[in-house]
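Case study.
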Amino acid sequence: RKEVEQDPGPFNVPEGATVAFNCTYSNSASQSFFWYRQDCRKEPKLLMSVYSSGNEDGRFTAQLNRASQYISLLIRDSKLSDSATYLCVVNRGGSYIPTFGRGTSLIVHP
Amino acid sequence: GAGVSQSPSNKVTEKGKDVELRCDPISGHTALYWYRQRLGQGLEFLIYFQGNSAPDKSGLPSDRFSAERTGESVSTLTIQRTQQEDSAVYLCASSLVRMAQETQYFGPGTRLLVL
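After joint prediction, the assembly is written out as follows.
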C-alpha cells in the first residue's frame, strides 16, 4: 500500500458545483497534514493546513479523520480558476520528510 | 518578500554531460528539499538539508546525483553523465522548521531536457 494515496481523477465539474477529494495515508504516526495546489507547469503552493478539528478557508474546508486515516478537501461553489491538481501531503511524526500524494486533477468547466 | 528562486529555469543538455542546478531558499529557512517531477507524475523526493548537512539522501536515484548546501543558504544539485531518463522538472523547496508543522515554499523549478 502506498504511503499516501489519492484518486488521480480527473474530476470534471461545472462551475458552482461542490466537489470533495479524499486522501488516505498508511502511517498512523503521521502528525501534520496539508493540501497543496499545483497549476499546470507551475510549482506546488500551499492551499491549507489540515487541523484535527477541521478548518475552513472561504470556499475550502479540510478535515482529518485519524481513526480511518484520511484527510479530505471540500470545495464549494467551484470557480473556473479552481482547475488545478490538488496534492495531499503528510508528515510522519519525528520526520521532516513530507510525503506527497500524486495529486487529484480538478477541471471546472463553464 | 523574496521567495525561493531557482536557476536556470530551463536547461537543455546532451546525454553524458554534467549539469548543475541552483536553488536560493527563502532567507532564514533552515530546511531545504529537492524533488523531481517527471511529466504527468507526482513529486519524487531526492534529498533534504537541515542547515548545511543532509541527514536524508535516500531519494537520490543513483551515484550520478549529488547535492550540497553552503552557508545554510544556496544549494546545488549536480547530475553527472546525464541520461535521457533524467529529463524532468527539478523543484526546490524550503521551510522554516518549527515544531512538527512545516509549510514548504517551492521555487519555480528547473526544466531539464536531456537529448
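Observations recorded in class. The two ends of chain A are 37 Å apart (CA to CA). The first strand of chain A starts at residue 4 and ends at 6. We will return to this complex in the next lecture.
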